[in-house]
Design brief:
Layout: E1 2-7, H1 10-15, E2 18-22, H2 34-42, H3 46-52, E3 59-62, E4 65-67, E5 78-82
Parallel strand pairs: 1-5
Antiparallel strand pairs: 1-2, 3-4, 3-5
Helix pairs in contact: 2-3
Length: 88
């Protein structure tokens, strides 16, 4: 399974613009949802843990559509993580 992850705002400052992930079909740790992907990413490095911490109110999008943590993670998806945005 291949996933493209994009980061925005302060998440991008810690992790860069994003990363491409690729799991083999028989991998045991393949995330099934956007929330599981976030948890998987948190385990990658201290910077990932700090930027994606579960206590942070981050938003997620799957293929450029806002989604919840329960959104299924399809092969080839583009997932974005970003903080809530305010306007004025």
């Amino acid at each position: 399974m291949k996933i493209t992850v994009r980061y925005f705002a302060q998440v991008r400052e810690l992790l860069g613009p994003g990363e491409d992930l690729d799991w083999t079909a028989d991998a045991a740790d393949v995330p099934a949802t956007v929330g599981e992907l976030r948890q998987w990413l948190i385990g990658r490095s201290p910077n990932h843990a700090r930027a994606l911490d579960a206590s942070l109110p981050l938003r997620a999008a799957c293929n450029q559509l806002m989604c919840s943590a329960h959104e299924p993670l399809p092969d080839g998806a583009e997932i974005a993580f970003f903080p809530p945005v305010t306007g004025g």
